[in-house]
Amino acid sequence: MKLQHYLGGLEGLGRINFEKRVFVQPWEKRIFGIHVAMMALSQHLEAAKVTPTQFKSIWTWANLRKLAEGMNPFDYFKYRYYEKWLGGISSFFIESGYISTAELETKTEVFLEKSDTPLPHNTEPAIDNQVIEYLRVGDSPKCKVEDLKPKFSVGDAVTIKNPLPTEHCKLPGYLRNKQGVIETVYEGAYNYPLQTGDGVGDPMPIYSIKFDSHEIWGNLTEPKTWIYADIYEAYIEDPS
């Protein structure tokens, strides 16, 4: 079984949308802004804990991906990029108790009946400053972990695992069971904000691995072409 986020290298997926605009509809800018504000005010950040806000939850890219990819696969392929964001964020606000399903449906009906209804407007400089600071410094997943040594070294020939599908997976589907060579061992350890259920979450090394394209797609690719992928250690077969 493959989930909708394992699509790399598959054929026959139908018409491809080559839309180049970042935002197709004006409301997409607003949902992007809401998402950025939620990340900047996420309570796992020390600065956000002292910022006056009603948002008392943890929200990261991982939360957004988990909720969007939890959609019915037919809906996932039907909706555009920011429509998936809207669905994921709306579900989060309902599940977290910030708004009820009934309240959301009522608000939706208002805007459907009269599309020129003014949008809510509220300016809080403290929140604006925190969002700007977050955009400036970000939220690095790199961690300082003592005595955490990489299991693999540059030049090692390795095999990629084939973990069971989970709510979200950081391993491209087309690399499962494939063989490659360690090209780079990145310094330090990196975590993922949520436990994926397949071994990724806690801090661990990440490697850049070089794959012969023929190992992945056979003779469909040109000779002497290579694929490079950054892969968490949990997805690599243990040499022992």
Say which CATH homologous superfamily of the largest domain is assigned.
Nitrile hydratase, beta subunit
The 3D shape can be described as globular
Helix content: 25-40%
Residue-averaged pLDDT:
86
CATH topology of the largest domain: Cyclin A, domain 1
H and E order = HHHHHHHEEEEEHE
Number of spatially distinct domains: 2
Poorly predicted regions are none
DSSP summary, beta strand count: 6
Structure class: alpha+beta
Radius of gyration: 21 Å
Beta-strand portion reads: 5-15%
**What does the main sheet amount to?**
4 strands, antiparallel
CATH class of the largest domain: Mainly Alpha
Q: What CATH architecture of the largest domain would you give?
A: Orthogonal Bundle
Spatial strand order of the main sheet: 2-3-5-6
Span of the ends, CA to CA: 28 Å
Summed up, the helix count is 8
Domain Nitrile hydratase beta subunit: 142-237
InterPro entries: CN_hydtase_beta-like_N, CN_hydtase_beta_C, CN_hydtase_beta_dom_C, Elect_transpt_acc-like_dom_sf, Nitrile_hydratase_bsu
EC number: 4.2.1.84
Function: NHase catalyzes the hydration of various nitrile compounds to the corresponding amides.
Walk me through what this model shows.
This protein is of the alpha+beta class and about 240 residues long. The protein folds into 2 domains: about 25-140, Cyclin A, domain 1 (Orthogonal Bundle), CATH 1.10.472; about 155-235, SH3 type barrels (Roll). It is about 35% helix and about 10% strand. It is built from 8 helices and 6 strands; from the N terminus they run αααααααβββββαβ. The protein has helices at about 25-40, 45-50, 60-70, 75-80, 80-95, 100-115, 125-135, 215, and strands at about 140-145, 155-160, 180-185, 190, 205-210, 225-230. α1 (about 25-40) crosses α5 (about 80-95) and α3 (about 60-70) crosses α5 (about 80-95). The model has no long low-confidence stretch (mean pLDDT about 85). This is nitrile hydratase. Keywords: Lyase.
